[in-house]
Write a structure and sequence with these properties.
Bound molecules: zinc ion
Number of helices: 5
Low-confidence stretches: none
Shape: elongated
Largest sheet: 3 strands, mixed
Strand content: 15-25%
CATH topology of the largest domain: Zincin-like
Helix content: 40-55%
Number of strands: 6
Number of domains: 2
CATH class of the largest domain: Alpha Beta
Oligomer: single chain
CATH architecture of the largest domain: 2-Layer Sandwich
Radius of gyration: 20 Å
Distance between the termini: 37 Å
Structural class: alpha/beta
Length: about 160
């Protein structure tokens, strides 16, 4: 990705980025050096790349996987409104709003092994029946025999459970 830095004397503090054709323009105050700008550029490029990745992930494949796991672990009894990949800023791997039946899976999981992705999908599906992480919830999730291993993997990658809603 091409990055062009445009410095302006009129700009005081804020750094701004805009896409122009295939290039990213960074608008920066005149007094900022390249070294001072570098961390901002790094995090910006990371963010853009993650958005790009998220847009290539298939919501449809995710939905199909969830349907498969629904049949496998919940007798096909679950219904939901939507299940989608999302770009999250924090280290939570997913979320489920059980009242609305909307499930969101972090796109950071897309690079992880399938057994970890399956665990997270099962975890969020189980929330459709049990909003909290009580004993009934644990019983549902532990039907998946790789649950413990997947939890260990996620913890090792620095992921905590989703924020409670
Ligand atoms: Zn949970």
């Amino acid at each position: 990705m091409d990055i062009q830095i445009i410095r302006s004397r009129r700009r005081r503090k804020t750094i701004q980025a805009r896409k122009r054709n295939h290039c990213i323009e960074i608008l920066a105050p005149a007094h900022m050096t390249d070294a001072q700008l570098q961390p901002h550029i790094d995090s910006l490029v990371k963010r853009i790349e993650r958005h790009k990745k998220a847009s290539t992930l298939s919501h449809d494949d995710l939905h199909k996987r969830a349907q498969y796991l629904n049949r496998q672990y919940f007798n096909g009894s679950l219904q939901w409104q939507s299940i989608q990949w999302v770009t999250t800023q924090n280290r939570s791997y997913g979320s489920c709003t059980s009242t609305r039946g909307t499930i969101r899976i972090s796109d950071q999981l897309a690079d992880m092994p399938t057994f970890v992705q399956d665990y997270v999908i099962i975890h969020e599906l189980a929330h459709l029946l049990e909003p909290n992480h009580g004993p009934r919830f644990k019983a549902l999730v532990s039907q998946y025999n790789l649950a413990e291993r997947a939890r260990g993997f996620l913890m090792g990658a620095g992921f905590g459970p989703e924020e409670e809603e």
